[in-house]
Design a protein that fits this description.
Blueprint (H helix, E strand, L loop, with lengths): L20 H14 L6 H35 L3 H48 L4 H8 L6 H41 L2 H47 L1 H6 L3 H53 L8 H27 L1 H35 L5 H6 L8 E11 L6 E11 L4 E5 L5 H8 L7 E6 L8 E4 L10 H6 L11 H13 L3 H7 L10 H4 L2 H15 L3 E5 L7 H13 L3 E5 L11 E7 L2 E6 L4
Parallel strand pairs: 3-7, 3-8, 5-6, 6-7
Antiparallel strand pairs: 1-2, 1-4, 8-9
The structure holds adenosine-5'-triphosphate.
The site of adenosine-5'-triphosphate has 13 residues, from helix 12.
């Protein structure tokens, strides 16, 4: 693996989120995810919504005519006409309310379907390779990716679906009533109403821009506040030992205050937008009379008597008012649109970062041509039985986000049977070297070649902090494989039980009530640190890789247990790359790499076993 760039990712200065071209680009990109093909489910739903909304308009029009027909039948005392009109009215009202409910129902279905499409799309990139690690640990420019994927996507889809049926109809109603208005008032009506709308849009855009950037900031603070609660939830026991309730209360409240302060500021900005929207709504209602007043006062209708003039005013006022109300409805959507724009920016930023990270991951993968993905090993168990797992050529390593040098010009070959122990003081870069071997960090200089694959027959890492997923005991042991490997049914059960016993965890089986018993506990809460390390070893024995990378994997265990676990690893034919502080580890290794900080290192041979 040839890696030129160091691991440092800077804080980039992104432009303030606005209602600008960037918004349109990001919105367009999200729409392409929501509507990938003409035949996609979302497009079909959208077309159904369009048909229902159009049908609804037709029925509304018919319902609107009914009152005037009542005048007719009541005026002429036509009882049978009254009965049939009432029957028609009831039918239309039932159809109308059904269509309205269907409209709402389809909007809700679209919200769910959009959320599914967008979230699954983001998940596809987020969980690709180590993208989730880079994004959460190394990138500082995209805050709270979890919040963006869960809450921001949810709100974006909800707001967009609430706008959908109004937006979808506007081109039709606008064209129809523009034509009607033109027929009644000539060019003056539509032109002045369009001009009014343009002014309204420009003013609203000015009022909306600060809202968009404030909303983006508010969502960041919302994510920070949630993260604080999550931190306490995950570390509840440690916090309780510190009696941290008071200090954490103060810190959590501080985040809440900051969030609420921003929310209040956002509302202050929204107030101006609401004033703008309401002013345009009410001004619109008198605009129709202004449109008619101009020809009247300029003498165009000088030859009409008052009765003819009022008939003309009433006719023109109706179409103008309708056209204006179509535009007002669009202006009313400004508040929702500014929310949608804020979420569009947050999701768009995440999307862009995910795409660039995934591109980088793909480039890396094609460069190394090695099988780095655990998913693939279930299909193709690694057949690259290379004698050498890692080859490092003049590798230098610095801290991300700073120039502090950890390792300089390291040449190292890790091959079968040559167990390597990495030692050194705290913070000298032992785990960082493993991060480079694991492909999580790039080296600043030099080449890192991984000549085998991950998983059974390849390399397995046991990180310093054990990782457990939700699920049964079997799922913990076979992790990160999704299926039993090898696919051998009960024989596999025997292997798992045997390895649990070897790891000293037979009693855990009794506590869980069996390998496949669903447990709703959090593994981190119910296992002691030592038990977590034992369970990690049971996993390692099960996967039985050719190379095992152990980062202080026995730090919570006694030397005696450490001895047993290491002996089992050796018996199972694993080559070990360990990081540890204990001298008792030396006897299991044939090489010791000592890191001394500031780039210095020393490789020596030991007696080993
Ligand atoms: N994501 C990160 N961003 C910036 N600096 C980091 C990051 N992770 C670790 N570091 C820093 O890198 C240095 C080396 O860390 P590393 O975890 O490799 O130390 P170590 O030698 O394994 O220490 P220990 O013996 O305590 O496990 C430390 O100074 C640490 O603070």
């Amino acid at each position: 693996m040839k890696q030129e760039k160091g691991p440092a990712y800077g804080r980039d200065s992104r432009p303030q989120p606005q209602l600008d071209l960037l918004f349109l680009q990001r919105f367009g990109r999200i729409q392409a995810i929501l509507f990938p093909r003409w035949s996609s489910q979302n497009v079909l739903m959208f077309l159904t919504l369009l048909s229902i909304a159009l049908l609804e308009q037709l029925v509304i029009y018919q319902v609107g005519l009914i009152p005037s027909q009542y005048y007719g039948v009541l005026g002429s005392k036509d009882f049978s006409g009254f009965k049939s009109l009432t029957a028609i009215a009831v039918i239309f009202i039932i159809i109308n309310s059904t269509l309205k409910s269907l409209d709402q129902f389809i909007c809700n279905l679209m919200y769910v379907s959009w959320r599914k499409s967008l979230t699954e799309y983001l998940h596809g990139y987020y969980f690709q390779g180590q993208v989730y690690y880079t994004l959460n640990v190394l990138r500082e420019d995209v805050d709270n990716p979890d919040q963006r994927i869960s809450q921001d996507v949810e709100r974006f889809c909800r707001q967009l679906s609430s706008m959908a049926s109004k937006l979808i109809l506007s081109p039709f109603t606008l064209s129809y009533y523009t034509y009607q208005c033109f027929q009644s008032t000539g060019w003056l009506g539509p032109v002045s109403i369009f001009g009014y709308f343009v002014i309204g849009t420009v003013v609203n855009k000015v009022l909306m821009s600060p809202i968009v950037s404030k909303l983006v900031h508010q969502e960041k603070l919302e994510g920070d506040f949630r993260f604080k609660h999550m931190q306490i939830r995950v570390n509840a026991e440690s916090a309780a030992f510190y009696r941290a309730g008071r200090v954490e209360h103060m810190r959590t409240d501080r985040r809440l205050q900051s969030l609420l302060h921003t929310q209040r500021e956002l509302m202050g900005k929204e107030l101006w937008l609401y004033i703008g929207i309401n002013t345009f709504d009410y001004l619109g209602s008198i605009l129709s009379y202004v449109v008619i007043a101009i020809p009247i006062f300029s003498g165009v209708y000088g030859d009409l008597d008052p009765a003819q003039l009022s008939a003309l005013v009433s006719k023109n006022a109706f179409v103008s008012i309708y056209l204006i109300s179509c535009f007002s409805q669009l202006i009313d959507l400004s508040a929702t649109l500014s929310d949608v724009a804020g979420y569009t920016h947050r999701i768009g930023e995440l999307l862009e970062t995910l795409l660039s990270l995934s591109r980088k991951h793909r480039d890396c993968e094609s460069e190394t041509k090695s099988n780095w993905d655990f998913d693939k090993i279930e299909v193709w168990p690694c057949h690259r039985k290379a004698d050498t797992a890692f080859l490092l050529e003049r590798v230098s390593l610095s801290l991300p986000s700073s120039d502090k040098l950890l390792i300089k010009d390291l040449n190292l070959k890790i091959s079968q049977g040559n167990n390597l122990l990495i030692v050194g003081n705290t913070g000298t870069g032992k785990t960082s070297l493993l991060r480079v071997l694991g492909g999580l960090w790039d080296s600043t200089r030099g080449n890192v070649h991984m000549l085998t694959c991950f998983g059974p027959h390849g390399v397995v890492f046991l990180p310093q902090r054990p990782f457990f997923t939700d699920g049964t005991l079997r799922e913990q042991v076979i992790y990160p494989l999704k299926k039993i490997y090898p696919d051998s049914g009960s024989v596999d059960d025997e292997r798992i039980l045997q390895f649990l016993e070897l790891a000293g965890l037979s009693d855990l089986l009794v506590r869980t009530g069996g390998l496949d018993q669903q447990v709703d506990w959090n593994w981190y809460d119910i296992l002691s640190p030592g038990e977590m390390q034992r369970l990690s070893f049971a996993r390692l024995f099960y996967l039985q890789p050719r190379y095992a990378v152990l980062d202080e994997a026995t730090s919570a265990l006694t030397e005696e247990v450490e001895n047993e676990l290491y002996c089992t690893c050796t018996r199972l034919g694993m080559t070990l790359i360990s990081v540890g502080h204990r001298t008792s580890l030396e006897k299991f290794h044939s090489w010791i790499l000592k890191l001394s900080g500031r780039g210095r290192w020393e490789l020596t041979r030991t007696e080993g076993v």
